[in-house]
Amino acid sequence: MELIKEEEDGTIRYYRLSNGSTIIIEVSSDRIEVRTDTGSSIGHIDLTETEDGFHYITYMFLNGENKRYLRQGIGRQALKFFKESIGTKVYAAENDGHTREDGSHLTGDAPAFVSQMRDEGIIEPLCNEDEDVSE
Q: Which residues of the chain have a pLDDT value below 50?
């Protein structure tokens, strides 16, 4: 994925994917929006700021456009851009099988994705199994 343009305010970036497609990632204090260069939604990531000033992923869906954009590094790049822009640590739920009221439980490809992002240092590990930063 190649950064091809960044808006002056630093909240929107345009990227070229390896297949030649262009996507747009836009960050705010609690959401990351991802769309095609024609404006079609690929999906978004919702984050909640914790009492400690960190951010916790409560919803992530990047399966839009018939899942055409999956496994191209968009989720990774979106989280990296968010962390860089907001200057925060990002946490996610553990894959413990519990359904959470805030929607932060992991489903589908999320357990493997979160594990990989933790390994890369993009999503922070929880300090212990009992810690729940979503509260």
A: 128-131, 135
